[in-house]
Every structure is written in C-alpha cells, then in structure tokens.
Give the backbone structure.
Amino acid sequence: MNAPSVKAAFSRRAGPRPQSLREWLDQRFHYWALAPTLVVLLALTIYPLVQLLIMSVSTVSFAEGRVIWRPSGLDNFHTFLADTIFPTAIRNTVLFVIVVVTAEMLLGLILALIASQVKRLTGLLRAVLMIPILVPAIAIGTVWRLLYNFEFGVFNQFLKAFSLPPQNWNGSALLALPSIMVVDIWHWTAFIFLLMLAGIESLPIEPMEAARVDGASDWQLLRHVVLPLLQPTILVTLMFRTIFAFKVFDEVFLLTGGGPGNATEVISLYINRVFFGQSRMGYGALLSIITILLTAVFVILYNRTVRRRSSAA
Amino acid sequence: MTTAKKLDRRQFLKVTGVLSGTLAATTLAGCAQPQPTATPVPPTKAPAAPAATAAPAATAAPAVSTSATVAKVDPITILINDSPWFPGFEKLVGLYEEKTGNKVNLAVTPFTGMLEKTRNATTASESEYDIVNLNEGWYATFYAGKFMAPLNEIDPTLTVDPNIIDYSNAMRWSHEKNYSTKDGTLYGLPINGNIQLLYYRTDLLEKAGLKPPETWDDVADISKKLMSAPNLYGFATRGQKAGFAVAYDWLPFLRGYYGDWVAKPGEDWTVTINNDAGRKAMKKWLELLKTYGPANVADVGQAELQQLMLSGKIVQALMVVANWAAMDDPEKSTVVDKVNVTVLPKPVEGRHATTTGIWVMGVPKNLPDKRKKAGLTFLKWALTKESQIEYTKFGAVPVRQDVYTSELASDPKYRWMKAMADSTQYIVESIRIPEGPQITDSIELRLNQAIAGQMSGDEALDNMAKEIYDVLQKAGYATKLG
C-alpha cells in the first residue's frame, strides 16, 4: 500500500462524532494498533534516553546505602569543556572509522566480485571467508595479542627470520592504532563480503547480458552496470558498518587498553572507563549523549547526501 | 450450551492496544526516577549494637569458631570473581560444606562484571548475595557509602583475631575521617592477601655468587651482571595502562622514598606526588625499566610479565604473590624450582613498601538479619587458622600471619610464604578513597606516557599532581598542591 492509500484508509475512520465508548474505540482503532510498537519503543528506547538525559545534568553518587541523584546544572558540561582526553578519543575514533570502513568496503567488494565468478568450491570459499565473523571478540583479542607479542609473537618471529628488528606493535604510539585497524579489517571484511555477495547474486542478469552484447569490457561492465545496480546494497552496508565501527570497543580494550598513553583511546573505551571504572555516571551520560548526537549527525548527513545523489541521478 | 466467543483480529488488536497502554503507564510510573535530592535518608533506628570497632586487643578471642561449633544456617550465595585464586576458594567452600553441613552457592562472574553486579545487588531492595567480594579499588566506595553491614551489628561479640593481617586497616572505615583507620567501623574481612613481592631467579644468582636484592641499587647491580638482552632482561614491572597496573607497581617506589600521593591520606590531603620523593621514585623506576627492562615495557601487562618469568627471559620482576602458582608448574614454567621471592627492595636511604592488592568479603546491608548472620558464619569459619592452612594448600593466598609462620612455610613448595611473612610489616594501602579509580587512572596514564617516552618523568608527575588536585577539590576534600 503506498502512502496516499494509507492516508485514505486512515481518513476513512474519521466519521461522525462517536456515540459510545465502543464507537470511540473503533474510530481510533489505528492508534490502538500502533500501541504495542509504541510501548516497546517507549520502554526500550525513549525511556532510557530520557534517563540518560536527566543523568547527564546530574551527579550520581553512592552514599547512605543508596544511589543519590543531584541536579548539577552545567557542571558536567564544564568538565567536558576541560576534558583533554575526549577530543583525542574522537580523533582516534574518526581516524579508525575512515581507515577501517574504507579498507573493509573495498576488500569486501573485491572478494565478493571474485567469489561471484568462482564456479568451483564456492561453499568452501564462503565458509573460509566467514570464519572471522564467527570468532568471539575475546578470542580475537587473545589470538591477536599473542600474534603481536613482542617476545614470542609470530610477526616478530617472522621479522627476526629476515634479520629485521622486532616491532613493538601494541606498545608504540605509531604502530598501536594501525595494529588494531588490521585486526578490525580482518574481523569485519567477511561481514561486508557476505552482504556484497548477496547483493551481487540478486542483481538482474539481463542488463549485464545486454551490456555484453553491446561489447562492454569487464571493467566497463563493472563500472557502468554492476556498481550502479549494487549501489543500494553498498550504501546500506556503508552506513551500518560506519555506525558499528564508531562503536569499536572490544578490540581496543583487549589489545591495548587505550595505550600507550592515549594513542588508541576511542570513544566507547573512554566512556566505559568514566562510567563504570570511575563511577562518574553523570559525566559518562553526557559523553554518551554527545556520542549519540555525533552518530545522529552522521546518519542525517549521510541520508541527505544519498537522497541528493539519487534525485540528481 | 455455551458458545466460545471468537475474537476477531480488530478486537484482538484493540484489546492488546489497551493493555499495552496500561502496561506502559504502569511501567513508566514504576520506573520513574526518584526526585533528585540532596537530602540524606532519614536515619533508621540504630540497632542496639555496641560501637565495637576498636582495634582488636592482643588478647581478643578468636574471631572464628572451630568447625565443630559452626551453627547450622540457611544456604548462602557468594558473589565471587573468576580470578586465578578462585579454584582455591571453591575448594575452601567445599570443605566448609563438608565440615558444617551448611550450603553455599557461588555466583561466579568474570572480574569485568564484578563491580556492576555488586553495585546492583547492594542498591536493590534486598541483595541477592549474602556475601560480596570487594576489590582493593572498590571497597572504599562500598564502606563509605554504607552499603555493607557493620559486622559488629551482626555479631556484637565479634573481634578480629590479631593474627588476621589488617592490610593497613582494609577491614575498617571511619566516616568521620572518610578513610580506613584503625578505629573505623568493621565492614569486611580479608579473603585474599595479595601483595607485591620481588621474584628472582635463584639459579642465576647462585651461579654468579649474588645475594637476593635488598635495595633497588642491588636490583640494578644484579641486572647489570646477568642481563643479556634480548634473551635475558634484568628487571621489569608492568608498564601497561590497564586500570591499576603500572600505577600499582610504581607505588612501592614512591612509598620507598617516603613519598605518597597526598601528604597523609585520611588526614592531610595536600597533593605531594610530585615532590622530591616522587621525583626520585620516578627517576629510579624509569632508570631501572629503561636500562634493564624489555624494549616493549610500556605494553607489558600482568600476562606478559608472568610469561617473561615463566619462559626464563627475566632475572627479577616485581609481581604480586598471586603469580606464584604457575612458577613451579612444569606445564607452564621453564623455571621450575629456579625462582624464589623476597621482600620488595627499598631505596638505599629509604624504606621497604609493598602495596595491598587484596580482596575483602563483606555482608551487604540490605539483607534480613538471618541472612547476614549466615554470611558472617561462613566468613568467621573461613578465617580460622585451620581453614586458612587448608586454603593455602588449595593454592590460595591466606590472610593470617600465623599461617605464614607455620610449619607449612618450611616446605620448599611453600617457600614464598617466608617473604610474605617478612613483608607484612611493610604493607601500605593503595589509593583507598571512593574517588580512587579516578586518581589511579590519572597516575596510570601519566606513568604509561613516561615509560613510553611520550613525556618526561617530571612532566608526568606534574600532570598527575594537577589532576589529583582537581579530583580531590571537586569531591570536597581540603586539598592543596604541595
């Protein structure tokens, strides 16, 4: 049902003034039908968000055997303005998102294009490529921490075999963030690959055959037929992956803990430390609100850009 | 004949809608945030318990009963973390059940979730746990916030056996001084006596005719003579930023030079971390780590440091006693019977100091009396000498001095116990105020930056001082920069 017909269906309900409760309920049926969804939304999204907002202008303390909320006005905001770590965390997070999402999108797309052309052992290929997303984050952290180990890690053993000096992968300010990026790319490229492959496999065959008949080369076919047709999949995947990457936590927590210094401090890790480690719930809530706003701004700008491009096309 | 009336789809949705609306209203009303308030809770009726929080007299009756006299109590639930010493505790609980017939449920949880679970339990209308295990970094919050039951309110006759090590008043909290003091209220009992020791390679020292180090300069001398990097490092502590890792390992240096993070915790809150003592401590620590430690020391955490020792790649290391269990385990260690421990070294003109990293068990305040008594019954039993001896045999770290000086200590398997016994007198508390985690985060970050070469030691200290001052000042302590 398209939008005007929905409107028409709803407007049909607006009749003469109800004469009984039964009639009144009946006339407003469409509202009651929405109620279950609204309840879930209120209980699981709106209510916690409102609580978070209240918390962000409060000081929460644990005293006298209970939790005490005190309104603190703009105190938390002043703390935020003086905070030197949060801007570093934002910078690191943005850098992380740009690098890993770009790399994962490219690699995922390339792998999907290759896999879509492979005729033999496709099941095996897909199963192997899926392995990283099946491994729990804690196992990934442990395995990669061992791989990066300065004394015994595979990478440094490899360097030593070629008489190269071992590298301080997680402990050097220069290498620590790139080291985490590598792990993330390894972990999430499989996710992009799966979505892209599903997108490619659902593309209509006719335009491609027509392009071939017209003498299009492989590159022309990809550039002018496959990629434009795949654009909706690419855009949705890009948006979701960007949002997920913005929330990176476990890999950083397990590999470097945000160090050395603040070289790998990211937003989620910092909020976790403030909220749970330091028990500064009010300030932690404010940082969470700011993070939500940043993500919302990204989603709005992204949607606007996509819409503008679509209408231009 | 009755006919079941069939609900059509529309009626069903209507009913669901009405019910959902009602449910939503009820839920939101039930979850409504209490009015933010600064007003303290009206004082509850004080129980007629004596203020039996004075320091135990040397003649005090044992705090614990023998197993034969343990009362029959209801089953209890203990919230406990799955740390390396947990298997020992689990066996101790098994022994308790076997000897007394009382039942214990263990709510085992990873360390990461412990604080939240404890907080949820102690702020609920009634705690689901009868005993909670409190970490060195948290118990100040739970004591100061009155979330734990004063143990003398549960049992007015309870006194703490002088053989139970007090870990610099870790069991007590003075609400007047806002610090753990000798005359504070008794809120918890220690269950894991983790402190720092110096681990060293006996085989290498003996071969070179060297004695175990007494001072940090001895550590440097031994390192200089035996080090052969990158195959064998001289000395290391943790350098990694990880909650309370590098800061915890640095504190013995600071205290060794008679310094501290404030002039006198609990009495004088002047920030002194960057005074002469602090600078000397920083200089010595950096010198030892940068000269004799592994090149990646800024990324060395607990696991890496233990690995270095177990794989025979380091001569000396500052580690907690909890690391000992793996040293003589042939499946994990290449240095079985080649490692020993001693009291942490001191500066040549300083003092020995070792920092508490213990766990304390407390009984939540929000429990009915019967449950509180059941919880305390277990704790009293667990701290008897006989229980603690078994606890040691199970692989845990006991908390009684008479266990450390018992016959068990002469068994080579338990050779670590002598260093523990000798270290008791040098125990200094970690940063034990509710704002402690904020302060340790600052020290942790700045030390990590100093060892990673991102700032000088002096800069790191000055940053720490300013940040500690800000935290204290904001929390209302009478503080100033020293």
About this structure: Strands of chain A lie at 58-63, 66-71. The first strand of chain A starts at residue 58 and ends at 63.
